[in-house]
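Bench log, entry 3. Co-assembly request; chain sequences pasted below exactly as received.
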Amino acid sequence: LLFSRNVGAATSARSLTVGGEDAMAKATAHPNRSLISSEDVEGTEVYDAAGKNIGQIDHLMIDKMSGRVAYAVMSFGGFMGLAHSHYPVPWAALSYDTSLGGFRTNISEQQLKDAPKFSDDSYTDRDWETRTHEHDRVPAHWGL
Amino acid sequence: LHYVGHASGLSLIEQGHPMEKLDETASLISASKVTGTNVYNTEGEHLGVVHDIMLDKLSGKIAYALMSFGGFLGMGERYHPLPWAALKYDTLQGGYVVGIPIEQLKGAPTLGGDEGPAWGDRVYETRIHDHYKMPPYWAT
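Structure output for the full assembly:
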């Protein structure tokens, strides 16, 4: 069994799936360690404060200069009644929970609905970025 | 990209939402665009590609780029974890440049596809940073 040394009970099912499908992913899939592979983050489930599954991480946006993840773009199945299927969430608003085998966030459905409107220029618009971080009550990724 | 469920509310407008297509701006780049990017040495020789990037969960900082050098070093399917700070993006070549001599890469820590490296083990990680004479990501 691959990396049985590192895999906790909650994450083993997912890791085994990864390991069974792609030999190359094995070396990098260690969700309960302090480091996590970007490939492994994409597709990871996200839960709300109550532990309810609300969506998953679609992709990550990285700040080129600092090498820090700026946003996790989350995808929602539509069941939340949101206007869009994808929302960028500041990385600082997510924390990995080993018992859930996924990320936990305190961002509520209402916060997503009220989030600053996204456009093509948003990622290069410090005003949009500032409003987004303030909206989600987390420190700005460029100020860390 | 895929859509979960079959909600009829996912219209064409949804599919055209800019966020999903936007994988690079002046300041940000999608993680999946980093992986697969070519890597060159300072002489412009093609060394390989970025196989994956390892993130520090707490800070969100990229700790390592897992390099796939393939046949170049004659090492088969082994990956080189490089400290992220060792990679510089070159817009001209459209890839990353590393100023690490081939001899240094040959003696560097590697991992195979079926090995679970000791990520998070500071002794293991310090060895990687020491080999490349770069400050550890947790100290910068």
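Residues 69 and 124 of chain A are 15 Å apart (CA to CA). Chain A touches chain B through 56 residues (CB under 8 Å).
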